[in-house]
Write a structure and sequence with these properties.
6% helix; 1 helix; three-stranded antiparallel β-sheet
Length: 299
């Protein structure tokens, strides 16, 4: 007669699963819409810099059925992640600009089995964006952005060590559309993209491709501004150690209201990411603060 797994072993297995989920909470961000005007392709020699910090402290997660519950009531799991993203965009040629995004992670996961903490550089993203209409004499604000996520962050196969990156490459193709209501100080923009995720050979894990979107709008009142972002993604069926596991697919839909205030050469921002629904990802509101500034060549 086959013996039944012990409660402690089952709890430990669930804790390991939750550990990986907690580590990927910020890394799965499909990108950001930093500020009004950043949605349009930058002219040569001009660009912008966005510094954003995301902080999440939670004991709950969206489980495979979409319900919000404790990570694991038996292990008293507690996830805390703080990630700082530096994103730089610069115009290269007329109608062409490039982006680089690098995160610094501080990921913590505590439960009855112990306290785990990792800090360091996460996976970097590189993008090239083109406004095709410019070459046909059209000012229609449609852009095509392609890019890749490169595994810079340290990845550990050991389930007891929090990885700083996914340990594999992603490839993305994004369509961007923006509109300014000038002379009113207001704008709207939209992204729709597909992310092709390579398999992680070391961990024998393939997360599955993802479709993602972002809708944003904002308005300014003198030095003060307000914006609202709706973003989300749906992931394919993951393949873990050769097995397709439909209940492990990840998805998220969240809203981010924020306020901006012109400060110095740029603007400071503060907001909250509010998850509306999701599967197999941490729940809880995420505090967002940051600073956006335009980069111009010296005169």
């Amino acid at each position: 007669m086959r013996s039944r797994p012990s409660t402690s072993r089952s709890s430990r297995s669930r804790a390991r699963r939750d550990l990986l989920i907690a580590a990927f909470v910020i890394m799965t961000l499909p990108g950001r819409a930093p500020e009004a005007g950043a949605q349009w392709v930058e002219p040569p020699g001009r660009g912008w810099l966005d510094l954003s910090v995301f902080h999440l402290d939670t004991r709950e997660a969206f489980h495979s059925d979409g319900d919000i519950a404790a990570f694991d009531p038996f292990t008293q799991a507690h996830a805390v992640s703080t990630s700082a993203f530096a994103t730089v965009a610069m115009g290269l040629f007329p109608g062409v600009d490039a982006w680089v995004q690098v995160p610094y992670q501080r990921l913590r996961f505590d439960d009855l089995a112990g306290d785990r903490l990792r800090t360091g550089i996460g996976d970097a993203r590189f993008y090239l964006r083109v406004q095709p209409g410019r070459y046909f004499g059209s000012g229609f604000p449609l852009a095509v952005r392609g890019g890749a996520k490169v595994p810079v962050g340290d990845f550990a196969v050991d389930a007891e060590i929090i990885p700083l990156g996914d340990g594999q490459r992603d490839w993305e193709l994004v369509l961007e559309l923006g509109h300014s209501f000038y002379p009113l100080p207001a704008y709207v923009s939209a992204w729709l993209g597909h992310r092709w995720r390579e398999a992680n050979v070391e961990s024998r894990r393939d997360f599955g491709d993802e479709v993602f979107f972002l809708l944003s709008g904002g308005i300014e009142f003198g030095r003060l501004g307000a914006s609202l972002i709706a973003e989300g993604w749906d992931g394919g069926v993951p393949v873990i150690e050769g097995l397709s596991i439909a209940t492990a697919s990840r998805s998220m839909l969240r809203l981010t209201p924020s306020l901006n205030y012109r400060l110095g050469a740029g603007s400071a921002k503060a907001g909250v990411q509010i998850p509306v629904r999701g599967t197999n990802l941490p729940a809880g509101n995420t505090l967002v603060i940051g600073y956006f500034v335009r980069l111009r060549p010296p005169t």
